[in-house]
Amino acid sequence: MPSLPRWKRRGSRTPIARRRLQLRHGEGDRQHLTSLEGLAALSLDALSSVAYGPEEIALVLAGAGALAVGGTLPITLVIVGLLMVLVLSYRQVIAAHPQGGGSYGVAKENLGERMSMLAAAALIVDYVLTVAVSLAAGAASLASAFPVLAPYLTETCLAGLALLTVVNLYGISDSARVLMAPTVLFVVCIVGVVILGLARSRPVAVVGAPMTVPVTETLGALLILKAFSSGCSSLTGVEAIANGVPMFREPRTVRARRAELILGLLLGSMLLGLALLIHRDHVLPREGVTILSQLVAGSYGTGWAYYVTNIVVTLGLALAANTSFGGLPVLLSLLARDDRLPHLFTLRTERPVYRYGVAVVGVLAAVLLIAVGGLTHKLIPMFAIGVFTGFTISQVGMVKRWWSLRPPRWIGNVMLNGIGALLTCVAALVLLVSKFREGAWVVVIVVPLLMLLFSRIQRYYTEIGAELGTHRIPAKPTGSAGTAGREKLVIIPVGAVTAMTERALSAGLALGGEVVAVTVCFDSAGADRMREQWARWDPGVRLETIVNPHRTVVHPVLEYVRAADATGRRVIVLIPLIEPRHFRYRILHNQRGLFMALVLREHLDVVVALLPFRLRM
Fold first, then answer.
1. Coiled-coil ranges per the record (predicted)?
2. Average of per-residue pLDDT across 33-59
């Protein structure tokens, strides 16, 4: 058995040995977050929405005339009330789902397969639109301070998107600590705008040219509902802390619930303060500037503080877009593990980064930004529908949970989550109906198509699993095992106990020499399950298990083979590969074996052989 100093071996008297990769720099409990660090890492998406949420209310109300814009304040009061309901509800989600209570996880546990697919599709739409909306709002904020950029909103958005995509493809670490300073700066700047603005009797300066907004509607119930639904875009990101509970330090639920409460108080205060300024100063949409930029000029003037604040707002929005580069690839990997997306989305690089997921975020966001010309208000109708669909599913799932378990005070919990579900459902439906022709129809088409895609992929993997025999013990491999004293060592990477594993072991035994199977598991529980299955099968071949929390396979196998090669024995690596019958199905198989063979050939002088397992499909 090769000696591997980088691995920590656990003693075992059985032929089945255990190995575990050492933790890398930055991993372990120190990497987990305090309440404030979690607030910085997970809430910038929600906090930065004050840059476009109040403006969306004012833009809708302006269609009924200048006086109607005064309705921004009462509508914001209702939105803040809904925010408090959501915050309290998600504090319950955190307590009930400490493993991460996103709407996909809640729906999967409480509402069944169809609703979990709907939640996943809505979340994908939400994540992609978060990137597009944040970058579009950031470009508008930057153009407000530097008018020369106004004709190039799309180009500015794409430049920011390209930078974020490249950075995330490379991989970033300690993101919570990196985000602390920008988050604090953003909150200080917005709170400063509110406090100074309310302290002054009138705005210090006015920016932007007057803009004539044609009066096309009356201030009726439908217009108010449309303004409310558009303004609810300020509530995006409220669920992010509940999704990321495992990122917090122990006691995780206590810290996460505290961070959720602080988020609600900060966001609610900023929304109310900005709405008060819009109402008191009769702020209207103006040409070439955002409403937030007008409020900044009214509080700070047009000196250096005006430019610094707009730059900070742009930076905050760009970093808010970056949260999707962390969240969506993880969601795609969860869907892939549930056999609802191609398994390649579970692959991580050594940094570690889900690069396929990051690439998908970048490409889809670029398509959206080009389609709408980098204009924020064209994205909001699509944005809010996905957000509130996820909110509604999560709240309904919690209602079912309380109804089923009936713990102490369950009636109050049902009422709280039920009210949240009702309000968010109404907001989604109103926005869908009122904004259908303005872009909401896209979500109506995309979400069912995504659900159909999940279903078809899951059915394919189910059929492949039956062909591979993933739920039954395969026959014993043919041939006899070699002895440890022989000069030849045949190493076979395996992932599960299947018919393909049996064929690979039979081929390895036919080569002679000692045969050893190597498997990489991502946690100790997975390693224990694999060892148990192997012992039950008892193929007569030793199994080496490597626990790698980075969820990568190629690097640990490379290190194992390198250590074996250093012993002077002749090493053969036999890599089994799934080969689908039709070319179109290849994307559903991660082709990890081909990549492993390429890496081994590039770094080591060992014999690498590929053993195809041809499927009937």
1. none
2. 84
Q: pLDDT band at residue 213, thresholds of 50, 70 and 90?
A: low
Q: What is the pLDDT of residues 153-205, one digit of tens each?
A: 899 999 999 988 888 887 654 455 667 788 889 999 999 999 999 998 888 88
Sequence-distant (≥ 6) Cβ neighbours of residue 433 within 8 angstroms: none
DSSP string, 131-166: HHHHHHHHHHHHHHH-GGGGGGHHHHHHHHHHHHHH
pLDDT for 92 equals 84
Closest CA to 242 of 393, 379, 125, 408: 393
449 Cβ contact partners less than 8 Å away, ≥ 6 residues apart: none
Residues whose CB is less than 8 angstroms from the CB of residue 477 and which lie 6 or more positions away in sequence, other chains included: 502, 503, 505, 506, 509, 539, 540, 541
What are residue 491's phi and psi, to 5 degrees?
Answer: -105, 125
CA angle 316, 318, 319 (to 5 degrees): 65
Tokens (6 digits) for 249: 């330090």
| DSSP code, position 567 | T
